[in-house]
Design goal:
Radius of gyration: 14 Å
Shape: globular
Structural class: alpha+beta
Oligomer: single chain
Number of helices: 2
Amino acid sequence: MSSILNLEKSDPFSEPREAGGTQGGVIHIRIQQRNGRKTLTTVQGVSDEFDLKRLVRALKKEFACNGTVVDHPEYGEVIQLQGDQRHHICEFLLKIGLAKKEQLKVHGF
């Protein structure tokens, strides 16, 4: 896959900012059981300065699964992907430089 750039909403000519794509410092990656063997992977905590819809589009293309951005009343905007994509998402976020290893928290069985 080609290098994915321009996932940010911010102006490229503005002042340089500190690296890292999280608000509270941690990106939570969780798995939820649906019905039967079906699962749902959620990603919470990605900074608002990144365009989540473009990030979901890149994730869907990379992992060949469906996904969306939902507005959760408590957690804000959350990325949802079909299937167990926890480890794939960790590797992807590290590869594109959106988060560091210590900023990722994987939950689930």
